[in-house]
Amino acid sequence: MRILFVLLIALLSAPSWAAAPFTPEQEVRIKELIRETLIANPDILAQSVNAWQQQADEAQGQQLSQFIAANQQALYQDPGSPRFGSASPQLTLVSFTDYNCPFCKTFDPLLEKLAKEYPQVAVVIKPLPFKGESSVTSARLALTLWQQHPDQWMAFHQRLMAKKGFHDASSIAAAQKKTGVTPVAPSEQSLSVLRTNLKLADQLGIQGTPATLIGNQMVPGAISYEQLEEIVKQQLAQAGK
Description:
Elements: H1 2-13, H2 24-40, H3 43-70, H4 72-76, E1 83-85, E2 91-97, H5 102-117, E3 121-127, H6 133-148, H7 150-162, H8 169-179, H9 188-204, E4 211-214, E5 217-220, H10 225-239
Parallel strand pairs: 2-3
Antiparallel strand pairs: 1-3, 2-4, 4-5
Signal peptide: 1-18
Keywords: Signal
Protein name: DsbA family protein
């Protein structure tokens, strides 16, 4: 019966030159057969939708894999992008984040926890200044600090992420003072890094933060640590094959 249903759909969707047109009586009977088939086999539509979704996911995964292969340097090896975790990682996560994003502020500590619990994992931080001028300012100062004093970056990064709500000039200055980092002026390189991050995000279809590239998966939003860990385990297993 399922085969009959597929054939009927194919006939109805075929172009006019592919077959002679149905008579009104035949069209009525075809519709009746389709209705009868759906009533007798209600799972057909669900199975068809699932098959279509699987094909769409596979196509999207192939596109992502191709993009990753073509942008290895910019994603994983850019010296202007802060990173923590393993120096010789088996798996590198790329975190697109914003110092003004409330969801990033809850998700970032999970990435730090992950890197501590999985010594074969590294995390690259890609600031995306989606939320106003202070997003740009805080990101550029953090990137400049990484470029000039990389050993001081993590403390400043954590302090910026710890603030509830949006940053302003006073909160950014307070973060510098509290962490005792060397005062820096935003560098031209930091602006170049942000432009690259925005270009990568656009090509990846990222529309908000956080967004995390884990192996061959792009994970939108702030997921739980359990979900994050499960994805990482799967990707580590694939990387080990």
